Amino acid sequence: MSYRLKMILPVVGMFLLFGYVALAVVRSSTEEIKQPLPPFLHDLAAVRLVEIREAGGQVVLSGNLTTTTEKDGDLEGETPLTATGVDADAVGKAEVEVSTVEHGAVDKELEVAVRDLTPSTTFSLFVDGQQAASFTTDQRGAAELEMTNSPSR
User: Are residues 45 and 102 in the same domain?
Assistant: First the structure.
C-alpha cells in the first residue's frame, strides 16, 4: 500500500463518520405539534404554573412561569420544567410570547418542549390547574407543542 493511500484512508473514514453523524442529527429532530390556544388562555401574562401530567394525573414536570415586558411592549416569559420524581430524568421548558404585529393584531403563543419522558406515551399539559392540551411523545420520549391564537402561521 502506498504512503499516499495510507494518508487518505483516515481522512475518508472521518468524512464518512461525520457525514453519518450529521445525517443522524438531522433525522432525529422532533416534529412540533401545533394546536390553537384554548380560550381560557386569553391572558398569557397571567399564566404562572405549567405542568406536564401522566395519564393517571401525577405531575411529571412542573415550572413557575415569570414574564417580562420588553421595550417594544411585547411580553415574554419562560420557565424550565423540572422533574417531580415521577420520572426523575425528564426535563422541559415552557415559553410564552405576546406581540403586536401588523395593523395592531396581537399574536399569542405558548410553547412547551419536553424530553426524556416515557416514549410513545400520552401526556397532558396543564396551565394554572386547567388542562390545555394532550400530546404523545415520540419514540425517544420527546415532544414539542406550540399553541397560538394564529394557527395559520
Answer: yes
Kindly report the pTM of this predicted structure. 0.77
Please give the tally of structural domains in the chain: 2
Contact 49, 128 (CB under 8 A): yes
**What pLDDT shows up at residue 75?**
92
DSSP symbol at 137? -
Bridge partners (DSSP) listed for residue 101: none
The answer to whether residue 153 sits within a structural domain is no
Q: State whether 139 and 109 are in the same domain.
A: yes
Among the listed residues 90, 15, 23, the one whose alpha carbon sits nearest the alpha carbon of residue 60: 90
Asked if residue 124 is part of any domain, the answer here is yes
CA atoms of 26 and 17, how far apart (whole Å): 14
Count of H-run helices and E-run strands, the chain = 1, 10
pLDDT tens digits for range 100-153: 877 778 899 999 999 999 999 999 999 999 999 999 999 999 999 999 987 554
